[in-house]
Specification:
The chain is of the alpha+beta class and about 200 residues long. It has four helices and eight strands. Strands 1, 2, 3, 4, 5, 6, 7 and 8 form an eight-stranded antiparallel β-sheet that branches. The longest helix is centred in the middle third of the chain and has 8 residues. The radius of gyration is 16 Å and the shape is globular. The protein starts with a helix and ends in a 15-residue tail after the last strand. The model has no long low-confidence stretch (mean pLDDT about 95). The protein binds a DNA duplex (13 and 13 nucleotides) through strand 3, strand 4 and helix 4.
Amino acid sequence: MILTAHFYHKNTITVAKQLLGTFLAHDSPQGRTAARIVETEAYLYGDDPASHAHRGMTKRNAVMFGPPGRAYIYFIYGMYYCFNVVTSREGRGEAVLIRAAQPVEGLSLMQERRRRTAVKDLSNGPGKLVIALGIAAHHNGSCLITGPVTILSRDSYPEKFPSKRLVVQVTTRIGISDGIDLPLRFYLKDNEFVSNARPKSSN
DNA sequence: TGCCTGATTGCCT
DNA sequence: GGCAATCAGGCAA
């Protein structure tokens, strides 16, 4: 079932952890794809220099300051998009970046979109999962409760993923140059679909 | 296996 | 004008 608004109206770190094991789904004209979220990062209000919202609202980050439960999608490195979930409460500017996911439904469509056959390489990174799921710039600001991009609860695929205690690992975040010491990256322990990238060291 | 680099463009300073 | 919450491919070992 689709996660409802109150799921997102919580402390951003809590949401980042609780998103692990849920399913990001997209019902597109080409068909349905869904992937289990295995890696997230929190971007916070206040003393978080890595957050796009750190210097206040701009044209790019405006969605971060809107209501929780919407998609914040931004363009990066001239060719990729990253998918985030707005969290906490309206006006704060907090979000969770979805960094990696495990393909669950619509595998062949994902393979076609990614031009890759290896399932392990379809969505094990923030830019990759956006491509695999067919998410695009026009989904920026879209509501994750009404769709077409939605997030489903952990019990949505009981045959493939029976109810089980999830072990969450915590590290610093990836690919940033400020705020690199903050422990705001979360992922499922020993999951082979977690992204390959490693945090920078602060030395 | 793992490090290094080029690709490519909208947004912010 | 510089850079960014990335990725794939190439090359060395």
